[in-house]
Automatic annotation (TrEMBL), chain A:
Database matches in InterPro entries: FAS1-like_DH_region (IPR039569), HadA-like (IPR016709), HotDog_dom_sf (IPR029069)
Organism of origin: Prauserella endophytica
Stored CDD domains: R_hydratase_like
Protein's recorded name: UPF0336 protein FCN18_22685
Protein family: Belongs to the UPF0336 family.
Domain FAS1-like dehydratase: residue ranges: 6-137
From TrEMBL, chain B:
Pfam families per the UniProt record, alphabetical: MaoC_dehydratas (PF01575)
Name of protein: Dehydratase
Domain of life: Bacteria
InterPro entries, sorted: HotDog_dom_sf, MaoC-like_dom
UniProt record similarity statement: Belongs to the enoyl-CoA hydratase/isomerase family.
Species this protein is from: Prauserella endophytica
Phylogenetic classification of the source organism: Bacteria, Bacillati, Actinomycetota, Actinomycetes, Pseudonocardiales
Domain MaoC-like: from-to ranges: 11-114
Coiled-coil annotated spans: none
Length: 147, 134
């Protein structure tokens, strides 16, 4: 069953606020084997001009993937999660993510189309602080392999 | 900085241990990344690495080179092939190389990244834009 194209243009407002912690940044940096002091040491981050430790460039996958998963779980969209793969991912950073950020994410469905028997779903998310400061824009394409 | 300049490469042995750790850190608990039985049931040869982990490792090569990770203003990849991770101590060897593809007037440069596993590229159009001055 093809995806329902009437979902193009749909917007999913934030459902929660994600508070970025020093501990989660350090845990993520450990998991990717990156020992940069800017991810762990507030003094090093301050010396580099940041108010607190900053996060690796793909850190926001934590909330970005969760939002995508929430969309694809919508039964009306008709997406078979077991056949879904991540086609591409992009992060546009308006400023580095840092510990203490309280972030809210709004996701948009940009496009739904069929190509070569596979369903494609393009989404983007605007991530900003609770004060409304833009932090990051993410773009993702999801592919549902044809049966 | 010149177009064509090569970054120091990065080679990573991705192991099952690292997949479990990354799953917890990224909150991506899709069983294809840790459950061999499940992975094979959905037609994969074995457990595969998170594409987002491979993406993150590519960024690590760039941030190691640029020094300050906050200088990465844009980063995108296509996921073209899976990295299959066997259940052994060596895991899967993923090799990253990068070079400067463009130096722009606005003080940024584009780095083009190649990620190879088993002799084949696993990321497509992997590009980072970094602020190199100012």
């Amino acid at each position: 069953m093809p995806l329902d194209p009437s979902f193009i243009g749909r917007t999913y407002p934030p459902t929660s606020t994600y508070e970025v912690s020093r501990a989660k940044i350090a845990e993520f940096a450990d998991a990717i084997g990156d020992d940069s002091p800017l991810y762990r040491d507030p003094a090093a981050a301050e010396a580099a001009g940041y108010p607190d430790v900053i996060a690796p460039p793909t850190f926001l996958t934590i909330i970005n993937l969760a939002s995508i998963n929430a969309i694809v779980a919508d039964p009306e969209l008709g997406l078979d999660y077991s056949r879904m793969v991540h086609g591409d991912q992009r992060f546009i950073h308006h400023r580095p993510v840092r510990a203490g950020d309280e972030l809210r994410l709004t996701t948009h469905i940009d496009d739904i189309f069929v190509r070569a028997g596979n369903d494609f779903l393009s989404v983007h998310a605007d991530i900003e602080t609770v004060e409304g400061e833009p932090v990051c824009t993410t773009h993702a394409q999801l592919v549902v392999r044809g049966e | 900085m010149n177009v064509g300049a090569e970054l120091p490469g990065l080679s990573v042995q991705v192991t099952r241990d690292q997949l479990v750790r990354y799953a917890g850190a990224s909150l991506d608990f899709n069983p294809i990344h840790w459950n061999e039985r499940f992975a094979k049931e959905v037609g994969l040869p074995d457990v595969i690495a998170h594409g987002m982990l491979t993406m993150a490792l590519g960024a690590r090569m760039v941030t190691d080179w640029v020094g300050d990770p906050g200088r990465v203003v844009e980063y995108g990849v296509r996921f073209t092939r899976p990295v299959v991770v066997p259940d052994d101590a060596e895991g899967a060897l993923v090799e990253f190389t990068g070079k400067v593809g463009e130096v722009r007037d606005d003080g940024t440069a584009r780095v083009d990244i190649t990620a190879k596993f088993d002799g084949k590229t696993v990321l497509g159009k992997a590009q980072a834009v970094v602020r190199v001055s100012g």
